[in-house]
Amino acid sequence: MKKTSTDVTATIGTPAIAFGADAGYDTTSGSFTKYTAGISVTKPDSYASTILGDKGDSIRASYVHHLDLLKKSAAVGEITRRFSSNENTFTVGGSFAVDHLTVVKAKLNNHGKLGALVQHEVIPKSVLTISSEVDTKALDKNPRFGLAIALKP
User: Fold this and answer.
1) How many CA atoms lie within 13 A of 29 on its CB side?
2) What's the rounded Cα separation, in Å, for the pair 59 and 37?
3) Closest Cα partner for 106 from 135, 75, 129?
4) What is the pLDDT of residues 39-67, one digit of tens each?
5) Measured distance CA(122)–CA(117) in Å, rounded
6) Is a pLDDT exceeding 70 seen at residue 1?
7) Helix, strand, coil percentages in the chain from 3-state DSSP, rounded to 5
8) Residue 109, phi then psi, degrees to nearest 5
9) How many CB atoms lie within 10 A of CB 95?
10) Are 21 and 39 in contact (CB under 8 A)?
11) What CDD domains does the entry give (predicted)?
12) Residues 119/103, Cβ–Cβ less than 8 Å
């Protein structure tokens, strides 16, 4: 039997506030495969968002504050609550634009996961990313490394 699904995404708002939703529906089984809804608020030096996701199983609130007028550096905070596992995750991080082509980012959560990445625009609109993550509470485990390139015409 062939599976048929339909996805719908909608966003409405102004430069200061936006509302959005995303849903996927499997017409064969007659059930939703996903649904997410969110709101974001944007100010000149910061923005915040709240997203209800994972079919209503999680809620995530995040805040980004730019530390300078050129928006080269930012501090970030995020709280995620997963209802099914009764788990909360708190993450803090930051980013810094080394130059107009290169950005460095880092984050640490309350579970001890420390992540960092470097993104560099190698050609216009195409970005090379080198990333790593280490579990600071289990240093005997191997860290994870990643390499990605996003090419856009």
Assistant:
1) 8
2) 10
3) 75
4) 999 999 999 999 999 999 999 999 999 99
5) 15
6) no
7) 0, 70, 30
8) -110, 175
9) 20
10) no
11) Porin3_VDAC
12) yes
